[in-house]
Amino acid sequence: MKIGITCYPTYGGSGVVATELGMELAARGHEVHFITYSNPIRLDPSLPNVHYHEVEAASYPLFQYPPYVLALASRMAEIADWQQLDLLHVHYAVPHSAAALLAQQMVAPRRLPFVTTLHGTDITIVGADRSYFAVTKFMIERSDGVTAISEYLREETNKVFGIQRPIEVITNFVNCSQYQPSFTPHEGRPRLLHISNFRPVKRTPDCVRILAAVRREVDAELWMAGDGPDRGAAEQLAHELGISAHVRFLGKQSHIELLLPQTDVLLLPSQLESFGLVALEAMACGVVPIATRVGGLPEVVTPGVDGFLEQPGDIEGQARRVVEVLSSSVLRARLAHAARHTAEQRFCTTRIIPLYERYYEAILAS
Ligand code: GMT
Fold this sequence. Notes:
By secondary structure, this protein is α/β, with parallel strands linked by helices.
């Protein structure tokens, strides 16, 4: 198949999933065209069957906001025509589905179906906001196919928008060959890791509070990977709690498969998470996730078996779990082993990518 993929190319789970999906599809012999405003962060455009087409939204003094959706729709239609694309697959509904719908009409009578993958905040925060509600509902209804990354998100979409159309659940995935546990224990003290875009929904400063509570019993350190609006608050908090020497802010990291195996526990104290891709990536590396019982996370982590889930904001509860894991090498090994097993058995690319292929085929045949 010849597939056009659009996503947010910067940091964020939806862009990561779109990029990894595109590269996996290309490796399986499909021709994949990324149509985005910059090179997606994890994309290697030199790979066979991978193409990158930049979208440029020209500015003009009359425009308070350059009309990116129009530039994207023009580029999608152009690439679909030049490359004879079979379908478009857009990740994150707002505003990518609107551009795809427009492009579809521009290339008519040639058929150009499009699939929208819902990732979470496009439904729970952005799409549900009054200013985007009607258009998001319309785009979901008009997409030729809609997938959601968890059962939770499918139900939430039906609930928020009162949508009747079928939505296929195809979960996030991980490349189990690339994401592997380390066979030699890392040096130094026990290490906690947090990876995110440091947005308020991630409750990033909670990680610092959790470390402070953990340190009453275990001499552990915390690595904070990523960047975003709450980084300053987290740094300030570490300073106020007198634990700055034990927290390392690593900034944005493009190879988290190299970082994860050097750590013991992943902290994901989010207020909401439709899936929690980073928890899955940690599990594939045998790193124990200690996360919150929200959204789609219970579909990924089974508490007490391959990680732990506590209530958002329950610092003491999450800290207690960390201490439990770090204090018993037997428990840590059991959870780490089970976490890897879950990733392998349920979420490997080898299982999930064929689901996308079959879904595309069904859309093309319908
Ligand atoms: O919250 C983020 O990290 C970014 C956001 C996005 O859309 O880029 O992530 C959402 O999509 C990820 C990939 O499908 C999911 O793993 C995240 O759970 C989801 N984030 C939320 O629902 C808050």
